[in-house]
Amino acid sequence: MHANSLARRLFITATLVSVVILAVVGFLLSTLYRASVERSFDRRLNVYLKTIVADVATTPKDVLPEPALGEPLFEQPLSGWYWQINRIGGDVVNSKSSRSTPATGLPALDVTTVENTGGYHEGYVDGPDGQHLRVVERIVDLGEDGRYLVTVAGDSFEINDDSEDFNDALFVTFGFLGLAFVLTVWFQVRFGLRPLAQISESLSAIRSGRAERLEGKFPKEIAPLASEVNALLDSNRDIVDRARTHVGNLAHALKTPLSVLLNEAATRNDPVAEKVREQVFLMREQVQHHLERAKIAARVAVVGTVSEVPPVITGLVRTMRKIHRDREITIETRLIDEVKFHGEQQDLEEMMGNLFDNACKWASSRVEVEVFTEKAEKAGGRTYFHVVIDDDGPGLPPEMREQFPSRGRKLDESKPGSGLGLSIVMDLATLYGGKLLLGNAPIGGLRAELVLPSA
What we know:
single chain; 455 residues; Heat Shock Protein 90; 3 domains; six-stranded antiparallel beta sheet; five-stranded mixed beta sheet; 9 helices; 13 strands
């Protein structure tokens, strides 16, 4: 999942929600279990407390009983289990405690901070030898026979130990449950977003020329998007067809007036007629250039056109060798088999033909052609290929290379041509999102480097 992706956002959000829910539920279960263990422990303490209270109530006045609780831990010193009876008020103050109770006795509960349930006080105190005690106490009022504070305490280690065992089991269980949630979320995100990936793959197929429309069955939430994209593609093709028709009609409409002017000028032989013929020829070239450019722009708007590059270059090389056979020009090529131009083959031939013809016209004896690809700057970005054409002719100085974008301007009047070749190549390359670069060739002449999008 990429850093800025819908799948990543959904996955992280669902995972965080699951973790928060598991943490809250785990905390509640741990708290409830500890409270349950405490209640169970308190019931055990209350059994002993009620037994002692019954003995106190049935023992003669001023005599403290010796309860028989049947628990050996009350007989072992500092065992963590203690009971204690304190007579409070009156003239006689005495107390009695289990053999396990230290000589200093048990600390009293702070009744302002402990639980009070039905006359019983329950809470925690720090006992001897670093023990943490759970204490239950009750005041027994026997009227004239006096008032007594009965206390029973047990080591809370059992509560903590049971709670820790439960927490460990809870942690392991919720850990596996959390892992199961994460895997489930991952599967749901991947499965749920699969139609979007399918649309992306279909659009890539359309862009590369392998398909013309979005095909396949999509979920009802995605189906309207696919339908709108197909409608947009159909509309785009209709617009291109109308543009081609309009350009064709305009070409025919302009040919007739220009032909009339040329014919009228041909009947006269004076400077005015010569100037008219000159300007008419220039207008025809310019009109033809702009009409071709309009047709090219319409073709570029068509999504998904792909052309093989090596066959075009190979065919042009054969043609140039035949045309310049008498000059014995050597043309060397270094090509890559799997290179495709993301555009019309006719436009690729137009660009390559102009550059090849220019190189062969100016070369002394040698022309070199190399094709190589360029990696995308970022993942999923557009890729390009380069066609480098070098000749060993006189080349061009930097100040003249800067003039080549000027439409119809010939860089050298000694060679035949209208001067539109490089301008056409530049216009075509720009329309396709590429560029034309001129520089010095290692073999001594001009280097023309054409950069175009690849499929």
